[in-house]
Design brief:
alpha+beta, outer membrane lipoprotein receptor (LolB), chain A, 2 domains, 14-stranded mixed β-sheet, six-stranded antiparallel β-sheet, 9 helices, 20 strands
């Protein structure tokens, strides 16, 4: 990570201007936008306590401390809360992603309910308690705790295991190629881990720092105590107007440089949109048995290769979507926190409606979408802006999409400029 240059005699720092790709500057909005459309929840922010007396540091020194942190061994408990402000569906939307909810499939659906690709999407909604453990790049474990169930994801060498105790289903995958063929065991099994759902304060902090550029203010703002450890508070703020992001606060362990807590508050005020922090943490080496897993007797085991084969049987409309490589061609309008992604829906048409006569949109679904959206007009024609407390998206009637962590007015302005 390149160093940040602080202002003379202050703790405030600006990120480097050169060498930042548009995709990196858009990392924070995209990390949340990828899951925002399927999330609900209303949870208060997590609390910290105490203002320990620590030696003064500049923002540059603290960021360098994070970058130099070599923490590879830890265990602890993380509480993560997400409040995008979407209306509740009575648990119908998130229930399938909760431990034991069967969102990943199972006997009554496709694939396995333990498949991590869909299971861990639940972290994008509501509040959750996680147990985490790590011992270097080859051994990690994450468990999502529920009142009556537990979902665990274990990476141990060449194996990735996931287990849903509610359904008694397990999911297993190996690294690309046969065991022993890869020259780097540190990469083994990782391609089957979910992407785009940061689950620890460190992962969230890294995404935030990727997005920092000359549009960003970064400063040290006091101290805190998190999980019984002394920490510095690093505050990251947009300098631009028009962003829905108010600020990001990262509590950084004073001794190890490990981020202990991450909080994203919206410009509109109120509770945090994302709040993730350790409630307990131990930097000692976890026991080797922590990463051992054997499916319980009677558990249904799905092999990753079999699950992928089932997914590839789908044809028709799915073929119109060219895959992840298309996302690399997103047109990004603007810069920094005001970046707006522009893309087109397949077929060059807007969202289906009950009035269209296509029958593609049930009336209940139409009413739900209408409750989220505001009709807007401009040089671009007509469209609807769908809102959360962080990510907003304008979908025009001719199939254009403009999305970002920006206000409704900023989206309309971008659509007009592109017309």
């Amino acid at each position: 990570m390149a160093p940040y240059e602080p202002e003379q005699n202050t703790n405030e720092a600006e990120a480097p201007r050169a060498g930042r790709r548009k995709a990196a500057r858009y990392a924070v909005p995209v990390a949340v936008a990828g899951v925002a459309a399927a999330t609900i929840g209303l949870v208060p922010a997590l609390a910290t306590s105490g203002d320990p007396k620590l030696p003064d540091v500049t923002a540059q020194e603290l960021i360098e401390k994070i970058a130099a942190s070599d923490t590879e061994q830890l265990s602890g408990t993380v509480k993560i809360s997400t409040d995008l402000g979407l209306p509740s569906l009575g648990g119908g939307m998130t229930g399938g992603f909760a431990p034991g909810g069967g969102g990943g499939g199972g006997e009554d659906g496709e694939g396995s309910s333990a498949d991590p690709q869909s299971k861990l999407m639940e972290l994008a909604s509501g509040t959750h308690t996680l147990r985490v453990a790590a011992d270097g790049p080859d051994k990690q474990k994450l468990s999502v705790l529920d009142d009556a169930a537990e979902y665990s994801l274990i990476h141990n060498g060449d194996d990735v295991w996931a287990y849903d105790s509610k359904s008694n289903e397990a999911y297993h995958s190996k690294s690309a190629g046969k065991a022993g063929e890869s020259g780097n065991s540190g990469d083994s099994g990782k391609k089957d881990l979910p992407k785009g759902v940061p689950s620890t304060p460190k992962e969230l902090a890294e995404e935030a720092l990727k997005a920092a550029d000359d549009t960003t203010s970064v400063k040290v703002d006091g101290t805190a105590q998190v999980a019984g450890r002394d920490a510095y508070r690093l505050v990251i703020k947009p300098k631009q107007t028009g962003s829905t992001v108010g600020q990001i606060t990262v509590a950084v362990d004073a001794k190890t440089g490990t981020p202990l807590k991450f909080t994203l508050t919206p410009a509109g005020g109120g509770s945090a949109v994302v709040d993730a922090g350790f409630t307990k943490v131990d930097f000692a080496k976890p026991s080797a048995s922590t990463f051992d897993f054997t499916p319980p007797k009677g558990a249904k085991v799905t092999e990753g290769d079999d699950a992928k084969a089932e997914k590839h049987d789908f044809k028709g409309d799915a073929e119109e979507f060219k895959g992840e490589e298309d996302l690399n061609g997103l047109n990004v309008i603007g810069k920094g926190w005001n970046s707006i992604a522009e893309l087109e829906l397949p077929g060059g048409q807007g969202l289906p409606t009950t009035e269209s006569g296509s029958g593609d949109m049930p009336q209940d679904a139409q009413r739900f979408l209408d409750s989220l959206g505001d009709k807007v007009t401009g040089k671009f024609g007509e469209g609807t802006v769908f809102k959360t407390r962080l990510i907003n998206a304008l979908i025009t009637d001719d199939g254009k999409v403009y999305a970002g962590a920006v206000t409704k007015d900023a989206l309309v302005k971008a659509a007009n400029a592109a017309s």
